[in-house]
Amino acid sequence: MRDPARAAQELRSPRRKGLASGTLPAMRLLEAALPVVLVLVAGCKGSSAPTSGCEAFTPSSKESDIAAAVGDAADGACFTFAAGTYSFNNQLALGTGNDVTLTGAGIGVTVFDFSGQVGGEDALFGQSVKGLTFKGFTVKDAPGNGIKMLSVTGLTFDTVEVMWTPGSAGADGPYGLYPVQCTDVLIQNSKVSGASDSGIYVGQSQNIVVRSNEVYQNVAGIEIENSYSADVHDNNAHDNTAGILVFSLPQLQQEGGHSVRVFSNTVTSNNTVNFAASGDIVHIVPAGTGSFVMACDEVEFFGNTFTGNKTAAIGIISYYDAQIPISDPKYYAYPSSVYYHGNTYSGNGTAPDTTSQFGLLLATAESAFPGMRVPDVVYDGVLDPAKGTGANPMQICVQEPAANAVCDLNLGQLNMADSNLPQILTCATPAATPFNCALPALPAVTFAGLTN
Amino acid sequence: MNPSLPRRALPGLLVALGALGCKAEAPPCTPGGAGVTGDSSFPATVDAFCQVSIQSAAVTPHDATVLPYDLNTPLFSDYADKFRTVWLPAGTQAAYDPQESFTFPVGTVLTKSFGWPADFRVAGAPVHWAETRVLVNTAESGWTGASYEWNEAQTQATLVAGGDVLSFSFIGADGTSEQPSYLVPSQAECRKCHANDGTMTTLGPSAAQLDRTYAYASGPANELAEWATRGILSGVPSPATVTPLPVWNDPTTGTTEQRARAYLQANCSYCHNGNGEARTTGLVLLYSETDPATYGVCKAPVAAGKASANEQYDVVPGQPAVSILISRVTATKPSIAMPEIGRSLEHVEGVQLLTDWVAGLPGSCP
After folding, report:
1. Is the pTM of this model over 0.95?
2. Are residues B198 and A249, on separate chains, in Cβ contact within 8 Å?
C-alpha cells in the first residue's frame, strides 16, 4: 500500500524528482555554471556527509519504505538512519539518483542486519550513477556480498563496517566492500571481517584510495584487482589468510592492472586458514601471506610493516602459478616493474601453509632457504620469454636492507608438482641480488573531491 | 495541462478519474502511461493505466488496443503463469530489429502479470494473480518501471515501490508442494535485470522471441505478423526469414544444445552480456555468443566466491556434476542461486535441460 505519509513527504520535499516542470531547465543552467561551484561542492565530499534536511529513518521504519525512498532517491538526496538494528528481508537497491548519501550513527551503532535476506547476491547494490556516499553504519551477516557498487563515479565509503558473525549461517559472504568498474573511489576508516574472498575488494576500477581501514579474519584483507591507479595506505590488515593482494586476472573487461602504491600499512599475523571455495582464485593463496602481487605492472610497496606472517611477507608471482589454463589472448600473466623499498619485516616465513600448493612448495625448500625459513621476499621467477634473458628482465626491484633475503624460485623451469625446488632456487641478501635496483616513484592518486 | 501544477499531484488526479472511469458500468477509461515521467511518479494503483484488470481469474486487456503476447522461451519465475501486454499510443510504431529488443516509441506501456493456480495438475484451475509489473517508456526518463500487488479479492493492485517478499504455497505439476519466497521487485530492482550499463531496456519483445503463434480472439496468428497488421511494428520482414528462438521445452523447435542456449538467453543473458550487470564476470550467455570459453566452457569463475562450490570451471563438458553453472542454477540459497533475483525455487525441468546439454558436450577441460 502506498504510504500516505510518504506521499505527503514527497510533495513537501524539494529534492524529489518530477516536481514542478520548471525545475529541469534550471538544473541544466546550474550544471553549466562556473566550475568554481563544482569545486566547492566536491571539496565537501568524503569528510562530512550532510545530515540536516535528510529523510530520516529509525529502526521502526518499514523496510519497504526505506527501499522505496532509497530506490527512488533524487539527485542530492540524503538519508539518515538512527541508532539501532534494521532487519532486511531483501537486498537494498539504489536507484538512479546522483550524489546520494546514506548516513548512520556509527559502526556498530546503526546496524543493517541482512541475515534474513531472501533475494539478491548483495546486501546493498547500486549502479551507473555519480556520487554515492556511505557513512557510519554496519552491514551484518549478508548471505552474499556486503555492499556492491557497479560503474559508479565518485564513490565514498567512510566509517562503514561489513561483518559476518563467526559461525553464523551467513559467515561466508565473498566480498565486503565491493566496488567494481568504478572511478574515483575512496574507502576510509572502515572495517571488514569474515569475508570468504576479500574484505575490501576493488575490481576493474580506476583512481582508488583505500586508507586507514581495518580488515581481519577475511581470506584476503584487501584486494586491488585489474585496477588502475590505487593508493592503499595506513591500513591495518591482520589475521586474514592474506593481508594485501594486488592481482590482475584474465577474461575480464578491464585487464592489465597497474599503478598501485601500497604504503604505510601494518600487515600482521595473517595466518587464518584459507576458507575460500577451491574454485575461487584466492583459494590458491597460502595462509600466512603478507602480500602477493600477481601479474600487475608498476606496483610500489614502501613503508609497510610485515610482522608474523608465517608463509611469507611478500610474494611476487605470475598467474601461471595458479595453474589455471589461460584462454584469453589479450591477458598478460607476468608481474613487471614492481618496486619494494623501506618496508620492515619481523618474524615472517616461519611456517609456510602446507595445505596450499604454493606453501607446500616453499616448505619443501625450507632447508635451502637462508636461515632455514622462507625469505621475506619470494619471487617466482616466471619470466616472459619476450623480455629476453637478462638478469632482471621483468624489472622486479627490491631495495630492502631490512629483509633477511630475497629468493628467486626460478619456477619458469619447474613443474609445480616437481620437488626439485631446492636445486634451482637462488637466494641472496637484498643487496646482492639482481633485484637491487630502483624504479621511479609512482605518482600519488588524486581525483576530484579527494581531501587528506 | 497547467504547467505550474506539481506533477506529483497528477497521478492522484488520474487515479481519481480512472477509478470513476474504469467501473464496468461506466464509460471505459483510456489506456495510457498515467502521466508517469520517472520512478517517483507512478500512480498508486494499476487501474490508472487502464491496461489490464482481472476478470474471472483472468488478466484481461482493457480493450483491443492492449495486445497480449507470449515469448518462445520465457524467464522462469517460481513457476508463475504470466500474462504480457503491449500498448502503443495511437498512430505510433515500434521499429523492428533483427537482433535486439525492438525500439518502442515514447508512451509505450508494457505489462506483465504473475500468478499461480492452487494446483498446476488441475486443468483450467483459477489463477490467483500476485502482481502486475508496468514498464513505461517516458520522454523524461526513458523506460521506467514499477510493480503493483493485487489484493486478495483481485479487484485492485497497489504500487509497491520498495518491493515485497511473498510467502504462499501451491502444488506443482509433478504434485510437489512448493513454498516460494517470491520477490516482488522494488523499483530500483527493476534495474537489476532491465538496465544495460545504466540504461533501462525491454527484455522480452524481440524478433526471435515473438516469432511464434498466438491464439488471438480473432484466431491464431504469428505475433510478428499480427503486430505488423495492427500497424504497431514497422519494418517487419516476412516471418519466414526470421529465425525463432527455440522453445526451451519443445524438442521440435531445436536440439538440446539450442534449447539450453535459448534457456540461458532468456534466464541469464540480460545480466550476462557485454553491457549487463554481470559484465564484470566475463561470462556471456547470449544465444548469439559463439566462443565456448566465453559462454562458460572450461572458464574459471572470477568473482563467484563460495558459489563456485569448490569446482574449477563454469561448464565442464560431459560433467554437469562439477559444472558451476549447473550448481548455481540448481541452488536456491541467496548469493549462490542464479539468476540472482526472481527465483526462489529450483526450476527442475530447466535444470534438467541444462544438465542434458552439459552432459552431451564433447571434450574435456585441462
Report:
1. no
2. no
